[in-house]
Amino acid sequence: MAYASRDLSVLAYANGFTLWHYTTLDPATDVDTAGYFNGAADLLRAGDMLLANCAVGAATPETGMLVVAASANGAVDVANLTPFGTANGD
User: Fold this and answer.
1) What contacts 24+ positions apart, CB below 8 Å, involve 53-57?
2) Which terminus of the chain is less hemmed in, N or C, by CB atoms within 10 Å?
3) What digits encode the pLDDT tens for the residues 7-60?
């Protein structure tokens, strides 16, 4: 799949920093690939953070934090997903 603008929303903005939320059916390995967020290049700035819900509806959804590593000239790159929590040993 691909980036969908309707799935990106602002949670907080202050002092030139934006905290975003993004939800998608796409797996994190797709979402954290350079260029995935190019459609939001006019919104995302280096240092912004995205709370991400990836692979929504899958047997193993992925949640975590993405950090915008670079955003310039219409190209966006985010760092790999830093997951929240760990697998439960139950």
Assistant:
1) 53/21, 53/22, 53/23, 53/24, 54/24, 54/26, 54/27, 54/28, 54/81, 55/24, 55/25, 55/26, 55/27, 55/28, 56/23, 56/24, 56/25, 57/25
2) C
3) 999 999 999 999 999 999 999 999 999 999 999 999 999 999 999 999 998 888
Q: Is the pLDDT of residue 90 over 60?
A: no
Choose among 25, 28, 29: nearest CA to 7. Answer: 25
Query: Which residue in the block uniquely carries the two structure tokens 């692979």?
Result: 55
The structure tokens listed for 4 are 């969908």
